[in-house]
Amino acid sequence: MRIFIRHSFSLCLLGYFSLYTCRLLVMVMVLKIEPFRLTQSSPSRKDWKLSFWRTSHGAEVDLLISRGTKLLYAIECKFTKQPSTSHLSGLRSFHEKHTDVSCYMVAPVNQPSRLSFARVLPLHRLLQELSAK
What we know:
Blueprint: H1 2-13, H2 19-33, E1 48-54, E2 60-67, E3 70-77, H3 89-97, E4 102-106, E5 113-115, E6 118-121, H4 123-132
Parallel strand pairs: 3-4, 4-6
Antiparallel strand pairs: 1-2, 2-3, 5-6
Helix pairs in contact: 2-4
């Protein structure tokens, strides 16, 4: 996990990830690290594993969250106030192979919406939803 974090922040500093993606990575790490009030039998977000997905053809998803071998969430970050289905190309490629994984696009939008199979949420709403799970 530390290697992923260090590698992700290095890529942020080098400009590989957008500033918006870097903000999401930091916020998810805060969710993962903060103390949780869960019963001992409940799974914890501390069990989350963070990664990204990319094909040899260049399709990619910015952030995957999994627990053990189960993929939980696929998150694409876009810095646009008017997201469209054309922004879903990488997420669509992923969704075709993993239809049971919840897909999100995080963008600086005013209201949550749905584009095809993905929910579009502003960053603060995504973090609220992830912290409630």
